[in-house]
Amino acid sequence: MIMDIQFHELLQKIVREAHHTELPTALEEKMIMDLSIQLEQRLEDSIANALTPEQNMAYQQLLEAEHTQTQVLEFLHTHIPNIKKRFEETIAQFRQDYLTTVQR
Predict the structure, then answer these.
(1) Residue 20's pLDDT is what?
(2) Which of 29, 38, 59, 78 sees the fewest Cβ atoms within 10 Å?
(3) 8 Å CB contact between 56 and 79
(4) Residue 66 region, left (φ>0) first, then alpha (ψ -120 to 50), else beta?
């Protein structure tokens, strides 16, 4: 998996906010990679919940056929008009859940 720079920076910000201290670079990077898997799953779940079963099948076919990111995004924007808001809400909830878990 190749992590987008903005995605990495977002997760790095969440990790640093949660831990209030500078972590060793290797540990921070491991945490970011682990969180990226979890966040990607939440985003995928959000997509799946917004699509009909037929749209989900078409979406999976797009992914399996390795279409470009632009093609996948066009599909998502066509079938989930509020996708940006949905992603923002999913990311905000993920952040809150992580911060709550770490602060226990």
Answers:
(1) 86
(2) 78
(3) no
(4) left
Q: Which whole number is the average pLDDT over 92-101?
A: 95
The phi and psi torsions of 64 (rounded to 5 degrees) equal -65, -30
Using alpha carbons, select from 38, 53, 13 the residue that is nearest to residue 90. 38
What global pTM score does this model have?
0.84
Residue 85 tokens read as: 């808001």
What is the amino acid identity at position 50?
A
pLDDT at residue 103, rounded to an integer: 83
Side-chain half-sphere CA neighbours of 6 within 13 A: 1
